[in-house]
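Okay, can you check this protein?
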Amino acid sequence: MRLFDLFMRRAGVDRAAINRRQGMSRLTIVCPRDALGAVRKQICLDFGAAGLDVAQFQIDSGRDADFASACITVNCPPELRSELMSQARRLRANPAVRHVHFGTSARAAA
């Protein structure tokens, strides 16, 4: 293993950064454009109160002019995974949110 670590360091791969990425998750939500601002604000407030760090919030206009898609990347350590799942369930229950897709950032579909 030490030889492999030496090889990786010389190749410029930061294994610590790779390990940090394992704590990243992504939620994709679809909601009406006019409700997106309120939903975004509520997500940031709720996630922050739960101890989850929203690392990135990307908005995609999509095909339908009335709806927008938001991809939320969250720094989520393993001990807070259940809280992240709880937040995803709360988002699904929000009447303004039409769809929620939950998954790790490597597997999430845009």
Remarks:
- Residues 104-110 have pLDDT under 50 and may be disordered.
- The beta strands are 24-32, 53-60, 67-75, 99-104.
- The CA atoms of residues 15 and 62 lie 35 Å apart.
